[in-house]
Design a protein that fits this description.
CATH superfamily of the largest domain: Intergrase catalytic core
CATH topology of the largest domain: hpI Integrase, Chain A
Shape: globular
Distance between the termini: 66 Å
Helix content: 55-70%
Number of domains: 2
Strand content: under 5%
Order of helices and strands: HHHHHHHEEEHHHHHH
Strand order of the largest sheet: 1-2-3
Length: 309
């Protein structure tokens, strides 16, 4: 496969990155959000090379190492640097496979692994306060408030990613069994359960809120915006921020509700394999981040279980 040259006015960098994005989307089944992130990271590296007079097919390992060093000097986080390094390795592996470069210059590119910091998670009390605030705002039956309540309850009850939630359709909800079907990373489908409070919120939204917002062009989307279109991730972030402010709890991002759900599942005694399935993690190692416990809880568990405590 040769880079497409049918994009008028596009540079060879742009064309190569666009073709890489198509590969990620079609062959690897990555979400549009992930594809945009990978392509943005690759553009960052190719821009660094271009400013040094090097075309992207001529990039070598020393230049890529200089690119990494520039990000370290710029005090970017280890997580960002690791992510960008992974994107560039994937890009040049693809380019080498397609015969667009003679050798893969990134095959020996090593980046520091991101620190094993614990995800931000709300405690049980603050999480309940946030959801109670959302429910209180929905008491008057306002369609947008009902939607916000349903969205927050589902994020916490299921631990799904925000992109998975906004991508869900009405038919993906089984109200009688309280199950939600979502399409995860790599186009992998999974079904996750949710509890009675989330079921109540979703029922109110589907019975009263959604019909008030739906238009002829709404399609099957589960969650709708004020104009009847599918709710997007940016709008969900605003929903979470408003609810946190109303509840007087720490201002968090929507992804924190996923971390919160996982942490509370593990602390409540759920086994890691089940949590892995619920969250859609590819490996158990990712799920193990949620096994942290407080020293007091650890001591209590030890005293209760060990025969010579």
């Amino acid at each position: 496969m040769q880079p497409r040259n049918d994009v008028i006015g596009a540079s060879t960098d742009d064309v190569a990155v666009a073709d890489f994005g198509l590969h990620l989307s079609a062959a690897r089944g990555l979400s549009p959000h992930t594809v945009r992130a990978y392509c943005g990271d690759v553009r960052h590296a190719l821009g660094f090379a271009r400013r040094r007079g090097v075309a992207w097919p001529d990039v070598d390992l020393p230049l890529l190492r200089a690119w990494l060093a520039s990000m370290v000097s710029g005090r970017l986080s280890r997580a960002t640097i690791a992510r960008r390094g992974a994107a560039v390795r994937a890009f040049y592996a693809w380019a080498a496979h397609e015969g667009l470069v003679p050798v893969d210059p990134a095959v020996r590119l090593v980046t520091a692994q991101p620190g094993d910091s614990l995800p931000v998670a709300l405690g049980v009390g603050p999480a309940a306060a946030l959801l109670d605030a959302a429910r209180a705002l929905a008491d008057d039956g306002d369609p947008l408030a009902l939607r916000d309540w349903a969205a927050l309850e589902l994020l916490y009850a299921t631990g799904v990613r925000v992109g998975e939630l906004v991508g869900a359709d009405v038919d993906d909800v089984d109200r009688s069994s309280r199950l939600l079907r979502v399409m995860g990373k790599g186009a992998k489908e999974r079904v996750v359960p949710f509890g009675v409070p989330a079921g109540r919120a979703v029922g109110m939204w589907l019975d009263l809120g959604r019909p008030a917002l739906a238009t002829a062009t709404s399609g099957p989307a589960l969650l709708l915006g004020s104009r009847g279109g599918r709710l997007d991730q940016r709008q969900v972030r605003a929903v979470v921020h408003r609810a946190a402010a109303a509840a007087g709890v720490e201002d968090v991002a929507p992804h924190a509700l996923r971390h919160t759900a996982a942490t509370h599942l593990v602390q409540g005694g759920s086994d890691l394999r089940s949590v892995q399935e619920i969250l859609g993690h590819a490996t158990l190692a990712t799920t193990q981040r949620y096994t942290h416990v407080s020293p007091d809880r650890l001591r209590s568990s030890y005293l209760q279980a060990h025969p010579r405590a």
